[in-house]
Design a protein that fits this description.
Strands 1-2-3-4-6-5 form a 6-stranded antiparallel β-sheet, covered by helices on one side. It has one domain: Aspartate Aminotransferase, domain 1, CATH 3.90.1150.200. It is α+β, with helices and mostly antiparallel strands. It is globular and about 40 Å long.
């Protein structure tokens, strides 16, 4: 696991740290080619410079977000907005994480991508990469 991400996880309360550690380990094992780092104060994984998946602590729990998740057509992923293609799920305990779902979503995150890397250059317009 990326040292910065491990530090982020270690700063969380015990229940949140368990969630973070399971998410990071699963993401690392599924997206082996991804670059991971702390981006905008949260763990994020990138493929070819494009943000794919990340998580953050929120009042309601740990939010796992897929930048292109709205296109995954997954019932358990909550589509947040209209302009962007992100979708997320919120966890409050590690037992809520279904690793089969998570692995399927991670596979889709590799296969279905919107180009967030160039969103500024395109003045907020997203284009489908894959």
């Amino acid at each position: 696991m990326n040292a910065e991400i491990q530090t982020y996880n270690n700063r969380q309360l015990t229940v949140d740290k368990e969630i973070c550690d399971l998410l990071a380990t699963t993401i690392d094992s599924e997206l082996t080619e991804a670059e991971s780092k702390i981006w905008h104060a949260h763990p994020v994984w990138f493929l070819d410079g494009n943000p794919i998946v990340g998580y953050s602590k929120q009042k309601a729990g740990l939010r796992l977000m897929f930048w292109s998740g709205a296109s995954f057509e997954e019932e358990k992923l909550n589509v947040r907005g209209v302009k962007f293609k992100d979708a997320s799920v919120l966890y409050t305990t590690v037992e809520q994480i279904n690793t089969n779902d998570l692995e399927r979503w991670l596979k889709k995150s590799r296969e279905i991508q919107w180009d967030y890397k160039n969103i500024v250059k395109r003045k907020g317009v997203l284009e489908r990469l894959k």
